[in-house]
Amino acid sequence: MTPRIVCLGEILVDFVSTERARTLAEAPAFEKAAGGAPANVAAGVAKLGVPSAFLGKVGADPFGGFLVETMRRAGVDTSGIVFDPGARTTLAFVSLAADGDRDFVFYRNPGADERYSREDLRESLISGSQIFHFGSVSMTGEPARSATLHAARLAHDAGKIVSFDPNLRLNLWNTDARAAIAEAAVLADVIKVSEEELAFLPPGLNPKLLLITKGSAGCEWETAAASGRVPGFDAAAIDTTGAGDAFVAAMLTQIAEHGSIPHDPAMITAFCLFANAAGALATTKRGAIPALPTREAILHLLQTGKPG
Known about the structure:
Layout: E1 5-8, E2 12-20, E3 30-35, H1 37-47, E4 52-59, H2 62-73, E5 77-84, E6 91-96, E7 102-107, H3 123-127, E8 131-135, H4 144-157, E9 161-165, H5 177-185, E10 190-194, E11 209-213, E12 219-222, E13 227-230, H6 243-258, H7 265-282, H8 295-304
Parallel strand pairs: 1-4, 1-8, 2-6, 4-5, 8-9, 9-10, 10-11
Antiparallel strand pairs: 2-3, 6-7, 11-12, 12-13
């Protein structure tokens, strides 16, 4: 089945503290889970029933095999994932605060994801897609930065819907994050940011749809003609890892099914409610990909106001 949504970027293993309110040094144990924001989005899209593919690189090691198999089981086309015998799969250790927020430490010097190059890119997956999605973590070093921007330009020039979520991790940047994000953002039709990331977008930028997530408070949206705020959903948050990715996956799925980015404020609001529900549900389980919700779970929350 031809992927309708193609995601490119980092794919890694999250080791999540099994106990809340502990620093990484104090954590007694960690639970392994597949992660990486664009990988989470690809898995979330597939879980919602829309064909997706992922482009990225893992190490030729047991963790790389685990990630590819996890993506395959999630229903993602993994033909664009490359194994690198010269670098290890990136790892991230994550501690959870009492409210489910996270603190990260990355093991990536360099990780295989940083070594993704233009030569690794399966351009046919992009040319055959409807939507191309990427983030900024893959732009923190070369050759992945050049490969990411090249892929985004290919999609943009081919008339695909381009989606960008900076997913800013400042501790990974040795270069100017603001300049790289500005270079990427001008290629995007849909941009999703947190309130903190909004300041990193270049002034005067006018994507077709700007989405500003606000955690449990929901989100705001802006187009050239209108704007609005959409409330969130109450959920007993266990782990907020992947909540933003679930939001993006749900939004892109609806755009793909609609066939274009909506202009009608009522439709945008409905799309945001669906995405907010997905994000809320993703916080109710530990890990990212294991917590990504099904369409049935999202519809149940929308209809009842309560997680199923």
